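hey m, so remember when u said the tokens were messed up on ur end? i reran from scratch. heres the input so u can diff it against urs
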Amino acid sequence: SNSCPSRPIIFFFVRGIYRIRTAYVPSVSPFHICYVLEGNAGFHGAICCYTRVRFRRFILQPLNLANGPADSFISNAVASRAEARAESDVRRECCLAGQCQRFFDVRPAPVQAQFPGLVRLILAFLRGDPHFVTLDGLNYTFNGRGEYRFLRAERATVVVEGQVRTQPLSTTNATVNTAFAVGMVSGGDTLLRVQVTAQQTSLSILLNGVTDISVDVMNLPLGGEDIFQPNDNVIFSRDEDGGVIVSIVGSMSFTVALNNVTSIPSLTISATISADFTQSGGVTSGLLGVMNGDPSDDLQFRNGTVLLQPATEREIFPVMQTWQITTAESFFTYSGGGNARDFAFPSHVPVFSDELSVDPAIEAQCGGNAECIFDATATGNINVGMETMAITNELEIQRTQTANQDPTITPGTPITIVLGQTVQYVFWIREVDAGDAVTVALEPIENTEVPNNTDIMADGPPAGDVQQYILTWTA
């Protein structure tokens, strides 16, 4: 669909692809948020606006132009990203001054304005004592110690690679994620290096190995309300939970969040990439697997040999260990002449959750959740297990939301309404996500109401993923 997506969470993950900035319309409501598209040819200045209906949930909210912008519009005669930003700034100043309508009188929106359709997204992540969900949805645990290729995405001559550093907790053989790095290479030239390191109460962020941008990024408001873009290759923003979103322009985004329930500060890391990445010639590799819709080949040696599943953690360990990086491959910054070898421990033998003896009390507190049980048992700290379970539940919700696609509505032929007569209007809804239920309802717009004698019902069985509906009412 070319309309605004129903869930603004999508915008948190696609800033780098679409160059999206956040704008507020304070004259309407402090809970009103808009996303402005700045950098996609043909759609400069497109806007999607949302109104908060309860904490951390927004919905699309059409607004009267006298009070603020419509839910979606594209300003006329905007030919470049610079012009789109200039127009956005003027619009904001007008609305702050209570002159939104005057702005739209001068810069009217086209009647059929639409936001460009956003691609379906895939979310993969790493949390706790390293538990992974791959791009194809495979769950596994790998307690390596060192620096590893988290995700490498190659398309044409451009390579974006995220890397993770894992270190042991002070009193156990379990490891946690303590640092993350991402680099961008084009035609053999390194264009970007970003490093995020866990500290006791915050995150340290380095740009290209020399510039500390921690203050610039960590002072951004939560919820994607503003961005920090130090160059043309990367955009930083914050999610609602305080994590840092690193969006690689034209590619993908990584979200890095601090956990401080372990004995040393650690990180939860997720990667978001468009579902059509491989369709345009893209290839992925690393700990997050091969993105092809088939989880059975996600456990691969670096040479491409696939480990057959099901597999034990002891069998998985040497396979994923091959993704340990060398100093030449590393995007990390090392102090005092250090290198990747300082973090490599070939003799490390981790804790394997499927070989642990589990305390029934821990099992009960974790409610049977395997990752919670493992983390609590391996670290000797039930709080670590409970935190892993909470993070996992939240990330699974985000994974479902980002992968879900909105239904599309195909309108029928316009009808003529005659007072006192019963009329019918036919339209179609396509739901591409198999198994999802579609609920159809009429909602009144401002200063209107839905008549009592109105009915919507499905007309016969669906044709594939398309269902025909009939709206009936008496005028």
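this time it looks ok to me. Residues 382-403 form the longest helix (22 residues). if urs says something different then somethings off w ur setup not the seq
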